[in-house]
Amino acid sequence: MWSTQAEHACRAVLQAREQAPIPADRIPQHTEVGARLRALTGFDFTLAGGPVANKRFLGAMARGYFHAVQFVRHPAMPMFTPEPDVIHDVLGHGIHLSHSQFADIYRLIGQTVTRIDNPDVLQMISDAYWFTLEYGVLDEDGRPKAYGAALLSSYGEIRQLHRSTVRPLDIDAVLTTRYAISGYQPVLFAARSLEEVTDILRAFLTRLDDDSAPPGRTHT
């Protein structure tokens, strides 16, 4: 994955990777990575046995915890996994959480979730998280460059960015865009910089409350 990331990841990710405590010669352990993350940004992994509800999963990020799993993707699907695994969590989110600017975005999302109880609004936040911290790209030198953790940890999908429809990052568009849970994303959203991602998310998150009305949306 390192050489593939070097070709297809954005500059902020490559900078974060330089200080990320992630070995390149073996599957890393959450404990060894987490100890270094605490020193870098105050984040740590907390282990989960499976899917975690939006309120708990996203809200934990306000306290500096990221829910991670211990299993590895099936050998029959090395290019892509439809659900998170240790490779996704460590090679994707572990790189993010080594970098203060990424870590601040995680905390911003988590802090918003702690004051929201409406499940529809929590889903709106989850959708914004999906198209940014999981599947976000930046427009660098006229090409989409990955920063989303799901892209960074998918050897197959990160090399197919040019096949997706790439649109400017716009939260209203994000919240009404169909996305794929079990395959490569047909649509990605690009910002011009990580600063723009932060600004767009902050403007969206700060206006949310339990009465915010979610738009119609379908998942596949």
Automatic annotation (TrEMBL):
UniProt KW Iron keyword: yes
Q: Could you say which enzyme class this protein belongs to?
A: oxidoreductase
InterPro entries for this protein = ArAA_hydroxylase (IPR001273), ArAA_hydroxylase_sf (IPR036951), Aro-AA_hydroxylase_C_sf (IPR036329), Aromatic-AA_hydroxylase_C (IPR019774)
Q: What's the superkingdom here?
A: Bacteria
GO MF assignments: iron ion binding; phenylalanine 4-monooxygenase activity
Membership in a protein family:
Belongs to the biopterin-dependent aromatic amino acid hydroxylase family.
UniProtKB keywords: Iron, Metal-binding, Monooxygenase, Oxidoreductase
E.C. designation(s): 1.14.16.1
Q: Which cofactor does it need?
A: Fe(2+)
Occurrences of domain Biopterin-dependent aromatic amino acid hydroxylase family profile (ranges): 1-220
Name of the protein in question: Phenylalanine-4-hydroxylase
Q: DNA-binding: present as a keyword of the record?
A: no
Q: Where does Fe cation bind?
A: 88, 93, 134
The organism of origin for this protein: Streptomyces smaragdinus
Q: Any stretches that span the bilayer, and where are they?
A: none
